[in-house]
Automatic annotation (TrEMBL):
The keyword Transmembrane helix applies. It comes from Streptomyces davaonensis (strain DSM 101723 / JCM 4913 / KCC S-0913 / 768). The lineage of its organism: Bacteria, Bacillati, Actinomycetota, Actinomycetes, Kitasatosporales. This is ABC transporter transmembrane protein. The keyword Nucleotidyltransferase does not apply. It comes from the Bacteria. Coiled coil: none annotated. The chain crosses the membrane at residues 33-52, 89-113, 140-162, 182-205, 212-230, 306-324. Keywords: Membrane, Transmembrane, Transmembrane helix.
Amino acid sequence: MTAVTAPATGTAPGPRGPRGLVWVMLRVHQSALLFWLMLVALFAGGLLWAYGPGADAAWTEYLDTGCGSGQPGLGCDVSGPAYQRYDNALGLSGAVMGLAPLFVAAWAGGALIGRELENGTARLAWVQSVSPARWLTAKLAVPAALLTAGMLTLTLLHRLVWSADGELRLTMGWRAWYDDNIFLANGTAATAYALLGLAVGALTGLLLKRSLPALAVAGLAALALTHQLGRWRPHLWTTETAIASDDYPETVGMIVEGGALTSTGARVPIPDCMGEPRCLTDRDITGFYADHHPASHFWPLQLMETGIVLALAAIAVAAAFWLLKRRTGAAV
């Protein structure tokens, strides 16, 4: 009689804890992860402080000097230490969000991609159970999720402070919605630029395959991109034109272009008429104009810039996958 062995109905318990590429990435780059979490926590705490105690202290300081009595003195346009602390918390958070693409690109090019290609860790993973495509996908997806979560958190908190304390900033008159760092920090563009930095860094690391050159080139490339896109920002949406006959028109917004108007409607530079009573008449100047973006253009400009930045990031990611496939062939 042939013995029949019944198959086991149970399965051996698998190893506990997270496994796979995500866990490996978090372990290998845990220093960068902890630094990012601490940075987000630090500036999130600073923005929450500015929203509550910081703004309250700045207002109290302002009122204690008699500036809120309706008869302001000569010192009311000078900020005190309490407002300086409030303004520093707001300004530093915006500056960090504006510089994030540079840091992310340098890290992605040098540590995330370049170092692993340089020391052979990536190729070791490819010849085992991880394909190059899965490897690059994990390298991009995990940092992208962490960057998006952190940047959106800081953006929401920055908008909270900005919307709540508008009267305070209007009173002191230091910052405007169209300032570079303020504009980025108050919308979706800051997150898009961070993702662009990640994509540019990954592509640079794949191109150079060495950590230090990739770090430097990726940072410079991100700097050049952010600078150029910032220069294009005023032209991403149609401007409004303000015209005045006696003096330069008063506008509250981003000035794109301004000058003088002749009787034919031609636009000319404003002449230097210091001490010349008939200067404007002799030059046929009949008025002045200013092409500008009012505050209502914030979201059109923001969304246009965000779309362009994300499109560039997608192109960089596609180029990175194409380059990886070209170098590894059928292994992808």
